[in-house]
Every structure is written in structure tokens, then in C-alpha cells.
Amino acid sequence: MALLQVEKMTKEFGGLRAVDSLDLTIEPGQIFGLIGPNGAGKSTAFNCIAGAFAPTSGKITFDGEVINGEKPWNLCKSGLARTFQIVKPFASKDVLYNVTVASFSTTNSRKHAEEKAMAVLESLNFADKKNVLAGNLTIADRKRLEIAKALATEPKLLLLDEVMAGLRPNEVDEMVSIFQDLRKQGITIFIIEHIMRAIMALSDHIVVIQFGKKIAEGSPAEIANDERVIKAYLGDDYVVA
Ligand SMILES: Nc1ncnc2c1ncn2[C@@H]1O[C@H](COP(=O)(O)OP(=O)(O)OP(=O)(O)O)[C@@H](O)[C@H]1O
Ligand SMILES: [Mg+2]
Fold this sequence. Notes:
By secondary structure, the protein is an alpha/beta fold. The chain has two domains: 160 residues, 3-Layer(aba) Sandwich (Rossmann fold); 70 residues, no CATH class. Helix content is 36%, strand content 24%. It has a six-stranded mixed sheet with strand order 6-7-8-3-9-10, sandwiched between helices. Strands 2-1-4-5 form a four-stranded antiparallel sheet, covered by helices on one side. A hairpin with a 2-residue loop joins strand 1 and strand 2. Helix 3 packs across helix 4 and helix 3 packs parallel to helix 5. It starts with a strand and ends in a 7-residue tail after the last helix. The relative contact order is 0.18. The chain binds adenosine-5'-triphosphate and magnesium ion. Adenosine-5'-triphosphate binds next to strand 2 and helix 1.
């Protein structure tokens, strides 16, 4: 059974159709990439799936349940977690506090929540920053905090919206290996990313959207060689490594 199935999902803002009849299917254990030009509707698709707002029409099935219009906190409890493109931590609280708050979605015990938060921080090589105020973190570490908060909710499916934007090349490499480890732990990953070398290295399957519509899907190699994708997004000088 697919972990996430999106069928004919459409989201309109007034007259603008930001997502247009989108179909996609994510199998358990996959790393599934979503790419496309700025304004293509990628974050809007995430927002509909993660319950920030209901799609105008279409059907979203997660882990066998139809979840259209379900609230984010209920989705989170059923194992669907997301990061935000614009990060919003409690800036005046430290890293451990921010992650512990997220841990409370699966436990009522402060001790358990804190232990889980520490385990997540360690898995992200982030434990050394546990006492740093979120507002004082670098961009890279704010992104890492976003991922830590999502992981602390123990997701089956993790939605990552441009978590590598603004990272240095070595930081991108570290993130790529962190996501590969998460997948080995059984977490399915749905990732939006503009850094091609990362998305190509990570993904089993990629969907490309433009003006809200799917224009291609396939393996990274298929996508990199697709005329329409090169024209709409990658550019003629894109060369497959
Ligand atoms: N809450 C909203 N209200 C009205 N219009 C919106 C809203 N959110 C997004 N849009 C519009 O929907 C379209 C798709 O935006 P979206 O943020 O989903 O694109 P994106 O693919 O994530 O782009 P980027 O790569 O720049 O993050 C854009 O035209 C955007 O202006
Ligand atoms: Mg976006």
C-alpha cells in the first residue's frame, strides 16, 4: 500500500490555480523529490498535504486514511510531519527547549520528551548546540532545528521544504547523508529542493511541476534528460554528473 497517495489535487487562491490536478504516489521507504521553478506550487502542495489548508478539490490518502482538510496537529499525531520553508522557532528559547516542545506530541512526560529530543539532536550531530538560543543560530542550524522538531514527532513521512537552501557545499553533503540515514531508520521522505546535486543524489523518484501541473516524473536520470524539464527548469547548460 502506498504511504501517500495524492489524486487530482487542486488548490486555488482566488483566480490563481497554484496546484492543478496533481497526482502522485509515495511508497513506504522512498525518498521522493518534488522540483520545479519558483512559484510552481511546490510549497502549496505541501501545505495541502500537511493540513495548513484544505485543497480546493482532489483526494489525499495517508497510510490508508483520507486526510483532506484534516488539521496539522492530527496529521502530526498520525505520523505526517513537515518543515517550513520560512523557519519559525521560539527564538528566545534554546534548541533543546524547541525540540522538546515538539516531542510532547507523542508523550506527556517531560522526562521522556527531553530524552527523545536529545536523541534526535544526537542523530543530527546537533547535541553540542542544545543550549544555544534558537534566535542566535546560523541559517544552517536553524534548518537543522526545523528538521529536529519534525523528527521529534516520530514521523512515518517527513516533508522537507528547501531545508538545504543557503547551506555551504559541505553542509549540503552532511544533510544528504543525514537523510540517507533517516531513510535507513524507516522514515519515508518527501523533499522539495532547488539544489540539484542534492535532490538527484537523494531521490528514488522525482516529480517536476510547473504552473501547478506535473510535467514529468521518473528516476533522477530520466528527469535530468527530459527535454521538457530542461526547458522549464534545469536550463540547457544542465549537465548530468
Ligand atoms: N497563501 C497564499 N495566498 C495566495 N497566493 C498564494 C499563497 N501561497 C502561495 N500562493 C501563490 O501560489 C503560487 C505557488 O506558490 P508556492 O509558494 O507554492 O510556489 P513554490 O513552488 O513553493 O515556489 P518557491 O520555489 O519559490 O518556493 C504562487 O503564485 C504564489 O504566489
Ligand atoms: Mg516554496
